[in-house]
Amino acid sequence: MIVLLSIKDELLARQRAASMFVKAGIVLTPIDQKQIEIAEFGLGNLELEGLELFTYINNERYCAKELALFPGQTCPEHKHPTVGAHMGKMETFRCRWGKVYLYVEGERASTIQAKVPAGSEPYYTVYCEIVLHPGEQYTIAPNTLHWFQAGEDGAVVSEFSSTSRDDLDIFTDPRIRRIPESGEN
């Protein structure tokens, strides 16, 4: 069952994300602020598993976005696959404000600083930990499983990447719907 946010909850999340961008020194026009996307993944728990993002540009060559994560909010595990002749998305995350715990394929950390969302534990499988503070960045190769979570104050991350095809992302959790299939907010 897909649970969609109410219009009120979506508006509040958008306003909250806009204020986080201001804290990070990122200026968005009023029109830009209305275009902040609220990705709640159809799970009905935006505070725990979700993401707020603003896309500056996304075309056949490149993409630039700003990501806002509320305190402890997690973007679920996924990868950007090769589709036909198009290699999967390569993306660089640069932390602008707060702290981000990023997990990718590789050597598993003995303990991790993030908290896997309760009830979703089977769907988080990669635990090579990268911690990003403001000014630090990391590049994720195409077709690499990854997930990320904000620290206790939240986080703002700039994403620079090849073309983004969000609707083709592969999530480990089969319950996730990146783009809502039906219904009204």
What is this structure's SSE topology?
Layout: H1 7-23, H2 30-34, E1 37-39, E2 51-58, E3 63-69, E4 74-79, E5 91-104, E6 128-132, E7 137-140, E8 146-161, E9 170-171
Antiparallel strand pairs: 1-2, 2-3, 3-8, 4-8, 4-9, 5-6, 5-7, 5-8
Description:
With 185 residues, the protein is mainly beta. It has one domain: Sandwich (Jelly Rolls), CATH 2.60.120.10. It has helices at residues 7-23, 30-34, and strands spanning 37-39, 51-58, 63-69, 74-79, 91-104, 128-132, 137-140, 146-161, 170-171. Strands 1, 2, 3, 4, 5, 6, 7, 8 and 9 form a 9-stranded antiparallel β-sheet that branches. The longest helix is centred in the N-terminal third of the chain and has 17 residues, at 7-23. It is globular, with a radius of gyration of 15 Å. It starts with 6 loop residues before the first helix and ends in a 14-residue tail after the last strand.
Number of domain units: 1
Q: Round the mean pLDDT to the nearest integer and report it.
A: 94
Please outline the major beta sheet: 9 strands, antiparallel
Q: What value does the Rg take, in angstroms?
A: 15 Å
What's the number of helices? 2
Q: How many runs of DSSP E, i.e. beta strands?
A: 9
Q: What's the CATH first level?
A: Mainly Beta
Fourth-tier CATH superfamily name: Jelly Rolls
**Helix and strand pattern:** HHEEEEEEEEE
End-to-end separation in angstroms reads 15 Å
| CATH topology assignment | Jelly Rolls
- Low-pLDDT runs of 5+ residues are 181-185
Structural class: mainly beta
Proportion in β-strands: 35-45%
The coarse silhouette is globular
Estimated helix fraction: 10-25%
